Amino acid sequence: MVEITLEPVQIGTLCADTDGRLAFADGKLVAVLIRLSEEVHGTDGKAGQWCIEVGFGACDVGVLSVRFDGLNAAQDWIAERMSLVPAA
C-alpha cells in the first residue's frame, strides 16, 4: 500500500488560485494540487474543487484537467495511479 501525504503550500500563480498541496507517494513528489478559488471560479461551479496542476510519473495528466471535490478524492486517485506502477 502506497502512503500518500499532502503538504500545504502557497503557489505563486498570477491569479487567486494559490492554495496548494504537494502530493507525495512514499516520500516522492508525484503531483502539485491547487484549490480553485471562489474569486476566479465562483461563476463556473468549480470553486472549492482541487485539480492536478502538474503531475509526475504515473500522475502525469498532460493537458487533461483532472478535478476532485475534495482532498480525500485526490489522495484516492493518486493511490490508484501509483498502484499501477510496477514495484522497483
Give structural notes.
This protein has 88 residues and is an alpha+beta fold. Helices cover 19% and strands 34% of the residues. It has 2 helices and 5 strands. The chain has a 5-stranded antiparallel β-sheet, with helices on one face. A hairpin with a 2-residue loop joins strand 2 (19-25) and strand 3 (28-35). It is elongated and about 45 Å long. It starts with a strand and ends in a 5-residue tail after the last helix. The relative contact order is 0.21. The mean pLDDT is 92.
Question: What descriptive keywords fit this protein?
Answer:
88 residues; alpha+beta; five-stranded antiparallel β-sheet; 2 helices; 5 strands; 19% helix
Please outline the helices and strands.
Elements: E1 4-10, E2 19-25, E3 28-35, H1 38-41, E4 50-55, E5 67-68, H2 71-83
Antiparallel strand pairs: 1-2, 2-3, 3-4, 4-5
Give a short overview:
With 88 residues, the protein is an alpha+beta fold. The protein has 2 helices and 5 strands. The two termini are 14 Å apart.
Mean pLDDT: 92
- Give the number of helices: 2
Instruction: Tally the beta strands.
Output: 5
Unreliable residue stretches: none
Order of helices and strands: EEEHEEH
Rounded radius of gyration (Å): 13 Å
**Strand proportion:** 25-35%
Structural class, from helix and strand content?
alpha+beta
Query: Which overall shape is indicated by the principal axes computed on the Cα atoms?
Result: elongated
**Side-by-side strand order of the widest sheet:** 1-2-3-4-5
Query: Helical proportion?
Result: 10-25%
**Cα separation of the termini:** 14 Å
Q: Describe the main β-sheet briefly.
A: 5 strands, antiparallel
